[in-house]
Amino acid sequence: MNHVIGIHDLGPSGVRQVLDQAADWKAQSPGEHLKGAVLGMVFFNPSLRTRTSFELAMLRGGGHAIVLEVGAGTWKLESREGVIMDGDKTEHLKEAIPVLCRYVDLLAVRSFSDGTDEDLDHTEPVLEAIRRYATVPVISMEGAREHPCQGLADLLTMRENFGDLKGLPVTLTWAPHIKPLPKAVPNSFLLSAITAGCQVRLAHPPGFELHESVLAQAAALAAETGATLKTTQDQAAALAGSAVIYPKAWGPTVAGAELSQASWCPTIAHLNGMRADAILMHCLPVRRDLEVSSELLDSPHSRVVDEAENRFHVQRVLLDRAYHKKENSL
Amino acid sequence: MNHVIGIHDLGPSGVRQVLDQAADWKAQSPGEHLKGAVLGMVFFNPSLRTRTSFELAMLRGGGHAIVLEVGAGTWKLESREGVIMDGDKTEHLKEAIPVLCRYVDLLAVRSFSDGTDEDLDHTEPVLEAIRRYATVPVISMEGAREHPCQGLADLLTMRENFGDLKGLPVTLTWAPHIKPLPKAVPNSFLLSAITAGCQVRLAHPPGFELHESVLAQAAALAAETGATLKTTQDQAAALAGSAVIYPKAWGPTVAGAELSQASWCPTIAHLNGMRADAILMHCLPVRRDLEVSSELLDSPHSRVVDEAENRFHVQRVLLDRAYHKKENSL
Amino acid sequence: MNHVIGIHDLGPSGVRQVLDQAADWKAQSPGEHLKGAVLGMVFFNPSLRTRTSFELAMLRGGGHAIVLEVGAGTWKLESREGVIMDGDKTEHLKEAIPVLCRYVDLLAVRSFSDGTDEDLDHTEPVLEAIRRYATVPVISMEGAREHPCQGLADLLTMRENFGDLKGLPVTLTWAPHIKPLPKAVPNSFLLSAITAGCQVRLAHPPGFELHESVLAQAAALAAETGATLKTTQDQAAALAGSAVIYPKAWGPTVAGAELSQASWCPTIAHLNGMRADAILMHCLPVRRDLEVSSELLDSPHSRVVDEAENRFHVQRVLLDRAYHKKENSL
Predict the structure, then answer these.
(1) Nearest chain C residue to A293, by CA
(2) Pick from C157, C194, C281: which is nearest to C11 by CA?
């Protein structure tokens, strides 16, 4: 079944195929390729772009989406096996997912980290539980560990600006925030860029390391794709000669590490030393003048709106691939 | 107008017709039988299966649903007549329902008991107020007294397993919980099984009696359909020779009656003495190892996912019957 | 671009065209005039009629709507420029709106006053910020200053009852409430009736004046359309000879002005002195026996449900006008 929960579900050649198809369909819309399909969207967390771009992909393709917000319009769901359910969770995924799979053709699920156990987060616990119970394809709308659709949209955006991504120097840099954010987006940008063969620079202050399981996966992938990864605490060194600046806030690995390090907030001045055609990328939502300066966001270097648009283009390819392997729901 | 607020709106022959049609359409989908129809879904309480299966029934039939969550995305609604509206309710059903009926072709409404007045609950106050104000057909998505769509899905599931339901021995048994749940599901299973002519056994600890209005309705129906009803406080005696175990938590009639009577939680051992082909049924959501043991839920005896699927099949028949009597909305 | 944020976006001749088309399409439905269109609906505040009537207008026209609830299912949005975003707002409209405009063909937005700064409210700050950022047409679903779709539905309702509106005597009268409500509805009724050339009487107790910017706009419009506006604190004098009584609660301009002036709550007795064919209008939701008496709401003089239905009829014209100037989204 064509689940997409992590980038490893596609692999380098799958990623390439998705990007090729997305670019083709961006140039020439495929029409009603999802005619009759119904996508069930399960949100454990809020959404604007993801909600809209997935529902739109179904509608533009001639299908439909049903949106469920867990804990708001629906029950709270348990994902752990073997627990006595006498707490605040009313239903187990072990029932909810098989039931939804009887109704809909495809599932898309968003379930962030709750910030309590980073090692657990990096097993992608909710999405992987859903994979076990599901009888229709499941696409992640952002998990605790990865946000593969964002990673794919990022790659499409870089391709549109720079063509072939092999060897392209790109910088993922930590950014300040008022609270410790999850790591799914930086994890996915890193893994995607490595999958595409980029020369990746990762810059963050001490105490903000990405998880070892992601770094290990990146190293293994790099050996396969010819990508490189260099980690540094020197943001300027990372940016030197880079074609992409991708600032992103995420939480510390060391308790008490300072979130408000304003010198890490990219401004126009940060473009000095980067390539003349350098672009700013960000997954959005972005807090202006906290994570990224307004002047940079409002400059011609910014591609953040293109990136958001590209969510639509890559997702409709994933939905298409998933649906056309499986059409026998109700 | 083809309202379905309680099982009495269908009667034994109506129930039979709905089940026949649902079984036919489960074998052979009816296509776009709801082309152009719009269903307004009004939720006073949360939902997962009901929300999804109703919206899906509209989409698969070529129609659409509009989902309104009262008190979340919409105003809180008053259902009592003759009150000065100076509290937290912003709008009266007397305006809201006629307005919605100008817009949509069909209404579906969920309004649980609020747990404060059981006698009032058993008049189905919100749904019956809506019946008075509505100018398009109204289908209950669970009221304070009945959950007719669940009862119909339960009957379809039993038919699929046992064929003719006349005289089939089935047991509705109380189950433990952490809070006093409403009685709409046990009421509807009881009334549906009696409508279908089953030999019904009802088991619960003292202090958990069903409401006299339901028991009186069941007795009157039984006289018509040849069903029988035996009530007992001995769960094992009820289960002996039974083809169905239907455990369900509900609240006490006597203040302080104990909710956590773990011996009432069905396990595999409870199947001893039942028929060899006995099945486990439950409306879901179910709290594992509190209401029903995991081993029983995960055993081949469980039909809980089939039951949930059958919600879709019976509901699209109800929607079809309602719509094709009334097509003159906007 | 065909934005409709205030009545000035249409002007007197635009209003006339919308009403003519709405009346035609009410008599004879236009079919799939919105085939392929997707409307993004952004709610900063709750809704029942607006939500349903807009989504229905899209569905009946062959299009679709995607519904986003800001702060519930989506992030909280910042509308002010130049602020450091270190508070509770996660995203700026400056990103969110351009992104949504890449996805959908049309936007509809609801953003009430928050009750803290009336002068700011009367600049329509959120909707006007969205106008600046949007690349697709934007329709107001009620702002801080105006609710143009309600005003248009009100005019259509008056036309259906009285034909030509030039010189028609109509009374907008303040009504009691438990809390200070926003002024968008009374502002829009006033501006719409003036646009249509009515003889408008505005009655309210001292301390409940409408904002000077609205009164100035009304005066300028009246000079153009031949309308008249007379303001009084004598409700009975205003109603004398009037064809329409439009009661509406709104908040005071003077701190401490009394909200619970029960003599201002219209009853059947208030019709004495009005025209024999006088009608009651209200935008809904209405609190019975607080803002308007039940006997009047339940009398044959009431047109409140017609008014709500007319929301649908005027909105599908606005959607049509907006869409057919702009069809190049994804």
Answers:
(1) C84
(2) C194
Q: For B276, which DSSP code?
A: T
Task: Measure the CA–CA gap between C62 and C31, rounded to whole angstroms.
Answer: 8
pLDDT digits (tens, 9 = 90+) for A152-185: 999 999 999 999 999 999 999 999 999 999 999 9
* Four-point Cα dihedral C269, C273, C275, C276, nearest 10: 50
Q: Which chains touch B (3 or more CB pairs under 8 A)?
A: A, C
CA distance B59 to C291: 40
C-alpha distances in angstroms, A325 versus A7, A309, A319?
19, 26, 10
Residues of C with Cβ-Cβ distance to A297 under 8 angstroms: 94-95
Closest CA to B213 of B81, B124, B152: B124
Check whether domain A149-308 has CATH 3.40.50.720, yes or no: no
Average pLDDT for B53-78: 89
**Region(s) of chain C under CATH 3.40.50.1370:** 7-146+311-323, 148-308
Q: 3-class SS at A205? A: coil
Test mutation, B95, B106, B107, chain C, max C CBs within 10 A = B95
Across B305-319, average pLDDT: 98
Q: What pLDDT score was predicted for residue C76?
A: 81
pLDDT at A73: 65
Homologous superfamily (CATH) for B7-146+309-323 = Aspartate/ornithine carbamoyltransferase (3.40.50.1370)
The low-confidence residues of chain A, meaning pLDDT below 70, are 71-75, 326-330
Q: Do B290 and A102 touch (CB under 8 A)?
A: no
Indicate the pairing of strand B244-248 with strand B169-174.
parallel
- pTM for the predicted model, two decimal places: 0.95
Q: What is the dotted CATH code of the domain comprising C7-146+311-323?
A: 3.40.50.1370
B260: nearest CA partner in chain A: A86
The stretch B298-314 carries a mean pLDDT of 98
Instruction: Name the pairing type of β-strands C199-203 and C169-174.
Output: parallel
Please write the tens of the pLDDT for every residue from B246-284.
999 999 998 889 999 999 999 999 999 999 999 999 999
What does the block give as tokens for A128? 């992987």
pLDDT of residue B158: 98
